[in-house]
Fold these 3 entries.
Entry 1:
Amino acid sequence: MFRMEGPALQTINANSLHTHLSNALLKYQGILSEAAMRRMQRQDEVRLRDEQDREYRETLEEDQRREREKLEQKRLQEEEERKIRQEMENVQHEKESRLQNARDMLEEEPDSSDKSIVQARIRLMLPSGKRVERSFRGNDTINVVRAFLILHFDESRTRIENFQLSSNYPKKALVDGDKTLESEGLCPQAVIMVQDLDS
């Protein structure tokens, strides 16, 4: 920034040298200040870009997190809906299967004038207090009576699915579905109480 040599250096006085040095220092200080200013501006620009990049990344990550949560919530909701549909289909299938089994098991009501077969005239006392009467064959099983009730409840839209039968006289629970009406002493007529086990 400042250079002096030869005879001029030998003849210059202290004040002139001080002036030259001060001027050179001032000139250098301006350049240094300008360089420092540019460096600070570059640092500010770099810092600003870093902050903007960080904010962008944070915003992007937050958006991605929300999107993942939304997708996960949608997946869980679809899974729950699928389970509910499957359960409803299983219940409906089980109900249809139960009704079909009851239809397959139940035969036509025997003719009361047919004396060639042992008959049982059964009066069924429902939980509502209603009475239903039907004739069965003596060799029909308790399960046949249950099949009749299953179909009766379906046709009358009565919401009874889990029930138990018991004879009035002799009083006992009819739990063995394979026993015949005749072997249970329900011929030629009897009263059977129907109990709703879910009520």
Entry 2:
Amino acid sequence: MLMKCEGAPDARFPAIFLMGPTASGKTALACALADAFALDLISVDSALVYRGLDIGAAKPDAATLARHPHALLDIRDPSAPYSAAMFREDALAEMARITAARRVPLLVGGTGLYFRALQKGLSDLPEADPSVRARIASEAQRQGWPALHARLTRSDPQAAARIRVNDAQRIQRALEVIELGGRPLSEQQRGIPARLPYRVLKLALIPADRNVLRERIARRFDAMLAAGFLDEVRRLRARGDLHPELPALRAVGYRQAWQHLGGETDAREFRERAIFATNQLAKRQLTWLRGEVDARAVDPDRDDPFDLAARAIELFLGTSRNL
């Protein structure tokens, strides 16, 4: 049971992070843990916030969500941007609601930027400006993102060194912040951020055998195709108000499907590109997770992830699981 505390949540309140690469089994484990403990789930996923991104984003199905609701799913239209700062604000509100109900928030997902923003806070950067973003996107269409990355290198070498040359979303945001703030992004990020007012148990699903994860990613993508993923993207394209530079449609799988339906690739190349991009995402997620030195690592393929996670939670909360 949670300790009683007046006012806003503070370090006496516990929270659990369940992190892992795509296709590592996070959702199934989170739901099993929610059956065993007084936990409420919050999604930490930059694609699952969008309505209509269901099959390709591996959104939990209706039966799963009926039994285990996830906060921060389907909270934005694909035409609207959603940032780490917005996530932090929304997540803190959900965490406060959960702790007020004398339960424990379990935050589950693979978006490392969101986890970092939540735990470590964010600098006070300028808010997004749709007109500036649209102009930068238009310039990228004419010149290519590598050219805009070169511009960022001239403006802010320190920020450019942290951003991959084809990372459109981060290049766009960096150039936008520089223009709106009048100073390099790296300089604007030096403010002291607010820390998360919770004590946190971090659980990280880290497969030791990358080949097993690659095989799972390929099987899952084929299952997505069989479930109607391309029809889902056709519906998004048919709206007429969406374009591939939107954050929602830069999500892995959706970008490649959009290109395929636009005639840029055949079916075989589309599948290969989407699976390759998903594997690259998993690689980046694993690199980030290995840097989380205070996380308890669990191999979902060699260990019993539920038992190991449940034992860690029992020690963290000082309570026993439901039998």
Entry 3:
Amino acid sequence: MNSNITVKNEKVCFICGAPHSGSTLLGLILGSHSQCFYAGEANKVKFLHLENPQKDTTCKICGKNCPIWCNFYIDNIEDLYQQLSLRTHKPIIIDSTKNPSWLEKQIKNLKNREVKSYLIYLFRDGRGVINSRLRKYKSSDPSEMIDDWITHIKKTNNIFKKFPGEKIKIQYKNLALNPEKIVKTLTNLLEIEFQSSMIKFYQFEHHPLGGNIGTQSLIIKAQKDKSSKTPIKLGERNKYYYKDHPLQIKYDQRWKKELNPTIFKLFEKKAGKFNKKLLKD
């Protein structure tokens, strides 16, 4: 693409919901459209170029030598999406930051700009979310984790209710089991043409900040012949599942076998009715 072409940021699509609900998968799919760039969790730009880098401070695929983020500096966060459009030559930026404060701030900022904003609320059975988080944070208190999930969902519900632009709710289960149908619905929302190749997100170039390392490892797996890609190192909690994971989208129901019966009962007691209502909406 001609580097002299100036591309204006025309649209920003936010993916909200609880962490571990499939936002990385959805972001990579949408980011595979010819007009879209998936930034990952864009709020992590604050961690770029730290003298003492920590986790999630660089592109998950390329590492420190990422052509998008390696020398990406921004003084005014309100210009973030425009600067990304200029850098990537894509008019539509996808941001899967789920932090409510970040979302509220960015949505407010876009009101004062000639940029159309969209909101996709991606939700998942809370038992699957809790199981995934416990796999990652083994020493965490399950009761507090369930409470945090309820609080996060309530805040997200409020953001979705107040959102002034085009918006939609999508269940992770439906995305995983019928991706083409769901993605067609989302491209219609974004007013862009559906491209069937989007479903094979692992065939495209991506540069996300943060996100699910397991899903991102499929890109490395599919593009292992490209020397620019640095293999993602999966921990034990992910290696057993993604080692033989097909490149195609697979519905993750590990919680049905992995979730401790005691924690299952605790979840039902604290959040059972709340979860059922979420899945019905």
